[in-house]
Design a protein that fits this description.
Elements lengths: L1 H20 L12 H11 L25 H5 L6 H9 L17 H13 L8
Helix pairs in contact: 2-5, 4-5
């Protein structure tokens, strides 16, 4: 039984190491509508984030550690649509002060927003 537990821990550690190096980063197109994701993000996310340079108004929240622009998030190393989907889905409903709350999106909306954010990734990047 102990050997099985060690094997499971080793597998988890290996996956975390691969994710940290970007090996698990998603390279294929995202299943989701980037256009629908953009529309949704412009309605739901602009209170805190810069979703697009042409959004109708700037974010209201400008406190310390302000939320990142979507383009900056898209261009982080190792960010993938799968990672974004998981991150957004696993946010707490009631977050700690200064942290993002769960946006309460359904699966289709999560795919759409993730697809939109990934369209903001710089094409010149080799990530």
């Amino acid at each position: 039984m102990l050997n099985r537990g060690v094997a499971v821990l080793a597998a988890v550690a290996a996956c975390n190491a691969f994710m940290a190096t970007g090996i698990c980063a998603q390279k294929k197109p995202v299943d989701g509508s980037a256009a629908a994701g953009r529309d949704l993000a412009l309605q739901a996310c602009t209170g805190c984030h810069v979703v697009a340079s042409d959004q109708p108004y700037p974010p209201i929240y400008k406190g310390k550690g302000h939320p990142h622009e979507f383009k900056e998030i898209a261009n982080r190393p190792n960010v993938s649509a799968a990672w974004l989907h998981h991150y957004l889905a696993s946010l707490p409903v009631i977050p700690k002060t200064g942290q993002m709350a769960n946006p309460d999106l359904n699966e289709e909306q999560l795919r759409d927003v993730s697809a939109f954010i990934m369209t903001l990734r710089d094409n010149s990047s080799s990530r």
